[in-house]
Amino acid sequence: MDDSNWYVRIKSLPRTRDGKFSPTLFERYQRNEKALLAYMLEMYISGVSTRKVSHIVEQLCGTSVSKSLLTAELDPMVKEWRDRSLSETDYPYIVTDVLYIKVREDNRVISKNCHIAIGINEYGYREIIGFLIQDGESGLTWSNFFEHLKNRDLKDTKLVISDSHKGLVSAIRESFTGVSWQRCQVHFMRNILSYVPKKDSKTLREAIKAIFHYTDIELARNAKNELIDKFSDNKRYEKACEILDDGFEDAFQYTVVAKGHSRLKSTNVIERLNQEVRRQEKVVRIFPNTESAIRLIGAVLMDIHEEWIGSNRRYIQF
């Protein structure tokens, strides 16, 4: 039997809190409609009358419900999913990023950050393994997020993929001892090219882009050294060459740790996820409180997570 297919079938089965299988229609409905429940709650919060929302629910479900009932149904589901144990699966590769949201607090609109992590499991499938809404993006908030994951028994991580935010990189080094960090190549290349003058620089730009096509670190390193030898003496290109040289090793760790799987060289997968969450979240624009943000974002992430698991499509091939 194919281990990966076994994994997908087991992960897609509904479970109760005690871990027993419970393929009831009600629980299936709860999983599939959690995003819809979140929108209904936000309609209440945004000022839509109870009567109108109850009418929508009645048309879809055959019964009207109150805001308190919807909240009582959804909040425990989001909390249980967010805090679930990760002990049953190994996640050798983690991709992480932050999503900025606006929340109303004490009659003030403030910025909060939603830290999100995607895990690529031992069979090559992707899962959303955690999210946490906090104040600010600092080394401390990232450390809190990583501790949240580790407290849920995250284990056997080999590579963390992210951008180069100073606080984030520091937290990765401290929280994941012995784990490699893959700097997002897309962000890194943009950073390098931002220091290359646009005029008369086509040759250099093409040479820089060519380096990032390599999936063998030795070939990439040789190409990088040749480029620096050729262009670093030119003051117009000195800074770009310096940035390339300093950040090169971190940007090619996936070629060593992750067997050159090209999908692990950037944060594209989580940026697409963030775009989907943002598309859903912009209907609200400003959350009335942190709890409502957890409710809506959590419900959307749960829905996407279930879709990924049910698709039976590997993100990377081993």
TrEMBL record:
Q: Source organism's superkingdom? A: Bacteria
Statement: the UniProt record of this protein carries the keyword DNA-binding: yes
What the entry lists under InterPro entries is as follows: Transposase_mutator
Which Pfam families does this one have? Answer: Transposase_mut
Q: Which UniProt keywords apply?
A: DNA recombination, DNA-binding, Transposable element, Transposition
| NCBIfam families for this protein | transpos_IS256
Role of this protein: Required for the transposition of the insertion element.
The text of the family note is: Belongs to the transposase mutator family.
Protein name per Swiss-Prot or TrEMBL: Mutator family transposase
The organism is Virgibacillus alimentarius
